[in-house]
Amino acid sequence: MNPIPFGTAEQVEAALEPAVAHLRSGGLIAYPTETVYGVGSRPLAADVAALQRLKGRRPDKPFLLLVSHRDMAEAQGLAFNAAASALARAFWPGPLSLVLPGGSGRLPDLLRGPEGGIAVRWTSHRGMARLVQALGEPVTSTSANLPGQPPAPGAAAITRDFAAAVAAGTLLVLDGGVLGNSPPSTVVDCTQPAPRLVREGALTLAELRRAVGRLAP
After folding, report:
1. Given 7, 19, 69, 150, which residue has the most CB atoms within 10 angstroms?
2. Mean pLDDT for the chain?
3. CB-based contacts of 183, cutoff 8 Å, min separation 6
4. Average confidence (pLDDT) over 51-74
5. Quick check: 50 and 26 in contact, CB under 8 A?
């Protein structure tokens, strides 16, 4: 299965139908984001387990969700406290992942981290936001790399690293060109009243504090 062009607005629109059909059939996709290339699935237990096998990932290491709007996160039962709401207003859409409580009975526990929450990000990548919107539900996300390797910079590297899954038709690659050496998203745990910085990435702690003051980690 050859990569599908996913760079221009026209290419994104042409890719929506085959990509959505592939995801709805239980398939996995590799795709560009505003930070690095990711691989993902629909947020269903069997699909997330297939993603886990593709990545060779430990069961206790969770995945995050990409949404196309805050409402989509809330529709999955995820809850925003005061800190999460302030951070989302300031930085969404963008490279900020918020770990939120809730989602029980709607989202698989494979997505849940050790703190009990599920990480979610409203992506600012226009193509992926459009795809998530067309799918009508979140897409799971983890960096497109083999364990211990850096994230793949483009479709050619993904096709090489995951050649068996591509050849089997399990993994559909969306080609958004070669991405720069961008840091991953910043992750903030908002499962408790006081937010906690999990990972400093594309947004610095100073930027978070400048934007939301005492509601920042």
Report:
1. 19
2. 94
3. 35, 201, 202
4. 91
5. yes
Q: Given this model, what pLDDT does residue 35 score? A: 86
The yes-or-no verdict on residue 117 having pLDDT over 80 is: yes
| Domain count within the chain | 1
Q: Which residue has the higher pLDDT, 210 or 56?
A: 210
What pTM does this model have? Answer: 0.94
45: β partners? none
pLDDT in tens, 208-217: 999 999 999 9
C-beta contacts of 89-93 below 8 A and 24+ residues apart: 90/208, 90/211, 90/212, 91/203, 91/208, 91/211, 92/121, 92/122, 93/122, 93/123, 93/124, 93/129
- What tokens appear for 127 in the block? 């193509």
The one-letter code for the residue type at 105 is: G
Ramachandran sector of residue 40 (left: φ over 0; alpha: ψ -120 to 50; beta: rest): beta
Residues in Cβ contact with 52 at an 8 Å cutoff, skipping those fewer than 6 apart? 59, 110
Per-residue b or e along 79-101, where b marks 16 or more CB atoms closer than 10 Å to that residue's CB: ebbebbbbbbebbbbbbbbbbbb
- Could you give the maximum distance between any two Cα atoms of the chain, in Å? 50
d(CA 22, CA 169) in angstroms, rounded, equals: 9
The boundaries of the domain holding residue 129 are 4-215
Burial (CB count <10 Å: 0-12, 13-18, 19+), residue 6: buried
Answer whether residue 181 shows pLDDT above 80. no
Q: Which amino acid is located at 8 in the chain?
A: T
Q: What is the CATH number for 81?
A: 3.90.870.10
| Cβ–Cβ < 8 Å for 29, 41 | yes
